[in-house]
Structure prediction request, 314 residues.
Amino acid sequence: MADLKKLLVIMPCYNESEILPITIKTISSLMNKWIKEKKIGEDSRVCFVNDGSIDQTWKIISQAVKKNKLFCGVNLSRNFGHQGAILAGMYDNQADIYVTIDADLQDNPECIVEMLEKIKDGCDIVYGVRRSRKSDTWFKKWSAQVYYKFLNLLGVNVIYNHADYRMMTCRAVETLKQFPERNLFLRAIVPLIGFNSAQVYYDRTPRLAGETKYPLKKMVALAWNGISNFSIIPLRLVTFMGFFLCFLAFVFLCFVIYRWSVKGTIVGWASLVTIITVFSGVQLVSLGIIGEYLAKVFVEVKKRPLYIIKEKIG
Ligand code: UDP
Ligand code: MG
Prediction:
């Protein structure tokens, strides 16, 4: 069975001490089953990436690695964020096939078998896609729907209801390394790689323990990365808005001159103040958008590392 592939399951972990014991049990029994059924090679492994947790996460990972040769661990020097942690796991380990999955296993890990089938059929990337958003709050459901539609409108190619549960071949991961961006939004970068891809559908279950590590602030930051890293349409919109307002100003000026020539009176103070306020507001927003893009360039040119590894075990 020399052609059995080495699978590497990558799990980013940030303060996951509550759920990790459950996750470790579930994933090790699944992996052992798949190895026994000869679906994956015996050298397949699970890599836990500790993303600067401040709880017992690294201790739990270290103990698991000591007890079971199936596991290995990467400890980052600080919190780099989910996307950086995923890259650390993929770029710092050798395997034939990589799969990234959240440490809370909300995304059904049993789908890995189906994903492997797609790889066997010649795909290089397999996206895990949520069948529905039943386990989400109404706010997350609604905001996600609006966001995905907005991204498509702006011409950003993302797969609806796919987050970061995906399988990639070694070739796809090597190609991903050619994308040197610092502002990470992997779900829009990966489709740019090309190659054959497929989708696998699953139902997302609620978190069994611990709480979400994606508070609104992180969610909004990631969402803005998705827009500003892949679309320049907001900048273009600012230009159009500028032209439109110049046109409006011209019409207003004509109106003022007309009033002055016909009635000899000046147009009311209130309308003037309103117009000044509106124009200043639009100008500030426009400057803000341009500033946001400039900030992105600022971050990109510095080329700071996406992650720093403190230690590796297993
Ligand atoms: N995560 C991480 N670094 C962070 C935030 C989150 O590595 O700064 C990991 C977290 O441990 C989990 C995954 O990213 O494995 C997704 O987080 P979570 O399950 O809390 O997100 P949600 O499912 O609520 O969107
Ligand atoms: Mg989760």
In short: Residues 269-302 form the longest helix (34 residues). Residues 233-302 form one domain. The chain has a mean pLDDT of 90.
